[in-house]
Amino acid sequence: MAETLFSLDRRNVRECQKLFRGERSQEYYLGDYWLDEGPSVEVKAERKSVGPISIIRMTTSPKSYFRRTRQHIREDATDLAVLWFVKRGSLGLSNQCGNKVAHPGDFAITRSMSPFLIECNVDEEGVNQTLHVTVPTHILRAHITRDFDTGLFLHCERPEMAIAENLFTDVFEDDGNLTPDSARALVDCALQIIGNAVKADSDGIATRQTIADRRLEEVLRFIEVHLSDPQLSTTMVARGCGISPRYLSFLLRLKGTSFSELVWEQRLEKARSWLTATDARDISISEIAYGVGFKSPAHFSRMFKRVFNKNPREYRGLADNDAEHDETGIALP
């Protein structure tokens, strides 16, 4: 359940600089925070923590500001990225690269290790509302490779951003029914979706796919669906996708692989994951072999050992030992 990070009104507005980081000054990073003078003051910031990531919904009236200077950075080197989803009003960002404004539907990233000034501008009804997500920069870089050191703006309503915003909102509004692992999985999924959208924007990828792209997707889907069938063949895939075997080979060359390489690689990788996640009491090695499309456990064992240097039984035993050591706190090699 979300908790109140800070709340301001006419009685305590002059303490806003002291209060904006929460009761123990644990949120955000050092900076200057202030509001415009106005007849009324209604500011509320609510937070939901998911591991080291915080989802914060902030509603502000009147206009408010946040400034991070080089002096603040020298005093507090906390490296956080903030993902901004503007709900009402607008968000102005000024830094050494110039001035930009994000409106509802736009997406922005700021980073605490570069100086900036943020202006939260109110709408016609005198309200600004944002959903923003604070993420340690080292975590975000696993999802976004594009440079965002001095900020990043996307002036577009990409469907990925709306989906990511909905995921963050669902986690924020959850009243405790989600397990911590489920909440973290949803947040990680949202970050990955944002990373995909940023990459697509950087590469200038059009939403329209070529015919070859669509055909390749159909081929990969057919193979995935029928991977457990030991009779899976180029003839079967070509017929199922309505193309010729020759065109099928051409499509797979576009992916840099051949039919046999793709199928065996997927079968062995899925078997490896299955062995890691289960033990003999759950499912036998023979069942795994047949489940991923091998005609016999002996053939599966030979192929598995050729790739992973251990037979399936040895590999499962090693995975079980690692899990036991991890649970008991013994350091893994």
Could you please describe the fold and organization of this structure?
- The protein is α+β, with helices and mostly antiparallel strands.
- The protein has two domains: 3-203, Jelly Rolls (Sandwich), CATH 2.60.120; 211-326, Arc Repressor Mutant, subunit A.
- The chain is 42% helix and 23% strand.
- The chain has helices spanning 16-19, 70-75, 137-140, 159-173, 180-203, 211-225, 234-241, 245-254, 259-277, 285-291, 297-308, 312-327, and strands spanning 3-8, 32-35, 42-50, 53-61, 64-68, 80-88, 90-95, 98-102, 107-111, 116-121, 128-136, 152-154.
- The strands form two sheets. Strands 1-3-4-11-6-9-12 form a seven-stranded antiparallel sheet. A five-stranded antiparallel sheet has the order 2-5-10-7-8.
- Helix 6 packs across helix 7 and helix 7 crosses helix 8.
- The longest helix has 24 residues, at 180-203.
Key features?
elongated, 12 strands, 333 residues, 5-stranded antiparallel beta sheet, Jelly Rolls, 7-stranded antiparallel beta sheet, alpha+beta, 42% helix, 12 helices
Write a compact overview of the structure shown.
With 333 residues, this protein is an alpha+beta fold. The chain has helices at residues 16-19, 70-75, 137-140, 159-173, 180-203, 211-225, 234-241, 245-254, 259-277, 285-291, 297-308, 312-327, and strands at residues 3-8, 32-35, 42-50, 53-61, 64-68, 80-88, 90-95, 98-102, 107-111, 116-121, 128-136, 152-154.
